[in-house]
Design goal:
This protein has 129 residues and is mainly beta. Helix content is 3%, strand content 49%. The protein is globular, with a radius of gyration of 13 Å. It starts with a strand and ends with a strand.
């Protein structure tokens, strides 16, 4: 069992930056693939970024490539999402997710929410224009 707690959300102006953190408790954090998803009001949950257990593989949604970066610190049981050049359309609740499954190293394996077994409570990110 893994418990996830997100932090770092808030209100920021367009063009600004935020860094989200997700602290994990439980065993064998480094064996878990981690992901960030988001859900805007009235819209479906969508993939933002994913990272392998070692941190050597990352995937980012096309909508955030070049602006967002996922990383992890296995010594601290924490995964991060650095968000730069934020846009109003990035406004959403951001969720951290984890899975102990062995995922194929392809985007289609990481970007499906159904592959993730553990979820945080979410943190709100609001980008004003």
């Amino acid at each position: 069992q893994v418990q996830l707690v997100e932090s770092g959300g808030g209100l920021v102006q367009a063009g600004g930056s935020l860094r989200l953190s997700c602290a994990a408790s439980g065993r064998a954090f480094s064996s878990h693939v981690m992901g960030w998803f988001r859900q805007a009001s009235g819209k479906e949950r969508e993939f933002v970024a994913g990272i392998s257990g070692s941190g050597s593989t990352t995937f980012h949604a096309d909508s955030v490539k070049g602006r967002f970066a996922i990383s992890r610190d296995n010594a601290k049981n924490t995964v991060y999402l650095q968000m730069n050049s934020l846009k109003p359309e990035d406004t959403a609740v951001y969720y951290c997710a984890a899975t102990a499954r062995v995922l194929a190293t392809i985007p289609e394996a990481y970007d499906f929410w159904g592959h993730f077994d553990f979820w945080g409570q979410g943190t709100q990110v609001t980008v004003s224009s």
